[in-house]
Write a structure and sequence with these properties.
Elements lengths: L5 E2 L6 E5 L5 H14 L6 E4 L2 E4 L3 E6 L5 E3 L2 E3 L6 H14 L5 E7 L6 E4 L12 E7 L2 E7 L6 E6 L4 E5 L2 H4 E5 L9 E7 L5
Antiparallel strand pairs: 1-2, 2-13, 3-4, 5-8, 6-7, 8-15, 9-14, 10-13, 10-15, 11-12, 11-14
Length: 198
């Protein structure tokens, strides 16, 4: 088991970081298997009347019927793989809740990113617990407060780490993975969630 978590210094939030939740060997193994077995897709998004390609690959897995919509994109859940279930059990032991779905993102290089957003869709409920596992390249994860733009926080998400966002975090903070000017290899992110309304 990893060392005790670090609680990030963020008002109006509850964010815990487990730096080495999975060992280096486990992380490399899961990265390789998931990169090959997951049904990755690059999807289109409509912004200002134009179709743009989302700058990362995405997949959605979960219990039957646990679909998810964000940014106008509907995700129908694919059946859990054995590897995803093993990872889920490990995460649930710490989170103390049962997750029924996971969003996977594959950032292929330094040009892949996700913009400022909160995981606050109605399907996730009032105070969602989001458990985020990272495998592969280290990328910086940035936060900014919704009401006070000077309140910011960032953390390097290392391979095998777990970032847990709980309580009012999604109501009060946005987060992103920015592009970088430094060359980066591939990084995979698994965000476990609880879909409540279907």
């Amino acid at each position: 088991m990893s060392k005790p978590p670090i609680e990030l210094d963020m008002p109006d939030a509850n964010v815990l970081f487990y730096e080495a939740f999975f060992s280096e060997e486990e992380s490399q193994s899961y990265f390789k298997v998931l990169q090959e077995k997951i049904a990755w897709k690059q999807q289109e998004l409509t912004m200002f009347g134009k179709q743009i390609m989302i700058p990362r690959l995405i997949a959605w897995y979960g219990d039957d019927g646990k679909n998810y919509s964000y940014s106008g994109i509907e995700h129908e859940s694919l059946a859990w793989t054995d590897e995803l279930l093993k990872i889920k059990v490990r995460v649930e032991a710490v989170a103390k809740i049962r997750f029924n779905s996971v969003l996977l993102n594959l950032y292929r290089d330094e040009n892949d990113s996700v913009g400022w957003h909160s995981d606050d869709e109605s399907e996730l409920g009032q105070d969602p617990v989001i458990a985020s596992i990272s495998f592969g390249e280290v990328r910086q994860f940035q936060f900014k407060h919704r009401e006070n733009d000077t309140l910011r926080q960032s953390i390097d998400l290392t391979s095998g780490s777990l970032l847990m966002m709980k309580g009012s975090t999604q109501h009060n903070w946005k987060h992103r993975i920015p592009k970088t000017k430094t060359a980066k290899g591939a990084r995979m992110n698994l965000t476990f969630r609880v879909i409540q309304n279907n």
